[in-house]
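Morning!

This is the sequence you dropped in the shared folder:
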Amino acid sequence: MSKKFKLDKKARQRIEQQFPDDTVGEFADYEDYDPEEEERTAQKKRRRARRTARFMIRLTAFFMLLVLIMVSVMLYTGYIWFNEPRKRDYPCRGVIVDNDMGQIGWQAFSGQNISFAYITATKGKDYIDERFEYNKKNAASTELYIGYLHLFEPDENGRAQAEHFIEAVGESMAGRLIPAVSIELRGLDRVFSPDEDNSLENLQEFVTEIEAQYGVSPIILCRYGEYENMVLPNEELSGCKIWTDSVFTKPKKGLDWTLWTYSPRVRLKYYETNSYLDAVVFNGSEEKFRELIVPKNGQ
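The structure's back. Tokens below.
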């Protein structure tokens, strides 16, 4: 089969002029060159290439979105997290307990991978966690180390808050973990920061009252920002141990921390609501952890 080739009209005319009629047949198997047709073909190829490129971009974007959704779901459910302290590095692990958990089956609950629990007791100068009495009574029958937590209100009188906490948890803390006070700003306080001088004075009053009652300084639960602004500059709070809340990164280098809330997306078993819990580790050995227990011969 002869190979076809294309000639434009001028080339064809030259051939007809140069060769006699009886030889033109040798070139009969050619096609006229049409620039417009070639441009249309090129445009079709370019359109196909653009459609293919758009399809690949959309397909890539779809898979990236799918991966992002999967990662977001795993983060939300706590299946993966930014921080995952190793058990061998931090053998003493615990959780914060509050009313959101509903009723807790304390005997079964205590048998999981935790060695201590801080029970939310009070907030401000007049609120008591609805489940506190139940949790306090039933947690006492387990082998967990138990402590009590107060949620500090920066604009309320510190002495009144301490008295409210003492009335709720009892006049003696012997055998319990040293009390804890959370000074994390919540809700509108994070947008409209309270008066620093007033907040600091209230915190100092709270700490002084707790020390006078129990003979120990409370451990202060805070993010690094609150630590830097309220705790670090205040010499009167220098005797308080630090419980750092850092769920996206490891604790700041140079920060002498005792407890670390590393995740708010942990679920355990044997409580009513199956809600997420704040997971906490202690910075040290099991032997050193026992130094957090208020002595039996204390107040």
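Headline: Residues 174 and 296 are 5 Å apart (CA to CA).

More detail when I'm at my desk.
O.
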